[in-house]
Amino acid sequence: MTDVARLAGVSHQTVSRVLNDHPNVKEQTRLRVRAAIAELGYRPNRAARALVTGRSQLIGVVARNSMLYGPASMLTEFEQAAADAGFAVSVGSVRELDRDSISAVVDRHLDQRVAGLVVIAQVASATEALAEIPADVPVVFIDGDPAAGRPLVTVDQVAGARAAVRHLLEAGHETVWHVSGPTEWFDSAGRIHGWRQTLQEAGREVPPLLSADWSAAEGYRAGQMLARMPEVTAVFAANDHLAMGVLRALHERGRRVPHDVSVIGFDDVPEAAYFIPPLTTVRQSFGDVARAALTLLLGQMKEAPVPADTVIVPAQLVVRESVAPPA
């Protein structure tokens, strides 16, 4: 700001007034300051200005418009963590995490002079758009690209999948079939990797991957195929809704769970304990993710030296009655 004031031939306070659209600035002076800003490529530190002026206790969140249990729970937990820290949350929902949609939401948040941004970015297509977030804006990604080099918080999807597959192998099953989520999702990719890696390390056959979306309907479709294959004795579903569809298909085909086929899900939705039979699943701690993301964001907002941290939150296997040794 000092360089802008020197080039424009005005005071530091005048530059501040122009940046804040103060009415008591002559138009000629305003134009001169704007020209100096453009020539120097100056970008005001929005977070620092908000903290100094006290005008923003607002955090912007960019999230996909979704009723899926994981993303919806993550958003709820972050809103609560922010409220506990004295911040309000402005949520910008997009139908798809593509460049144009994300850019529009980010610009809207910046116009609100948010103190920082949290981006819940589960898919690879968001990477290009996220790279355009200005460097002076504090930002933390949840479930984003681990290779992006920006502060990131995520659940250990690989370890969660490994725990599920290992549990089935230890029960005596020769191999485990996997009904995955969309392969472009980072969460789904991590679970696929953990499933395949565990089978390979155990020297077991890796069955063909059954790729789906996150819905019970797609789980049912995959389950209809699996139910017709007598060699299938263990299924790991990438979320509990997929597992619900698999359970329905197995039941219709007369394949008993867990006597004929064992099934494990992922997420531990509130209904999982009431499935028939109660579902063994992998629990994600969305609250821990939210609090870790807020901690990273607050560190940046205070202009503390924050490296491009990656915080990995553990996942927990919850054992219930849907797993048993093979018949």
From TrEMBL:
Start and end residues of each HTH lacI-type domain: 1-53
Lineage: superkingdom: Bacteria
The entry's keywords: DNA-binding, Transcription, Transcription regulation
InterPro entries: HTH_LacI (IPR000843), LacI/GalR-like_sensor (IPR046335), Lambda_DNA-bd_dom_sf (IPR010982), Peripla_BP_I (IPR028082), Rhodanese-like_dom (IPR001763)
Domain Rhodanese residue range list: 122-194
A Pfam family hit: LacI
Gene Ontology MF, one: DNA-binding transcription factor activity
PANTHER family: HTH-TYPE TRANSCRIPTIONAL REGULATOR GALS (PTHR30146:SF109), LACI-RELATED TRANSCRIPTIONAL REPRESSOR (PTHR30146)
Name this protein carries in UniProt: LacI family transcriptional regulator
Protein source organism: Actinoplanes awajinensis subsp. mycoplanecinus
Taxonomic lineage of the native organism: Bacteria, Bacillati, Actinomycetota, Actinomycetes, Micromonosporales
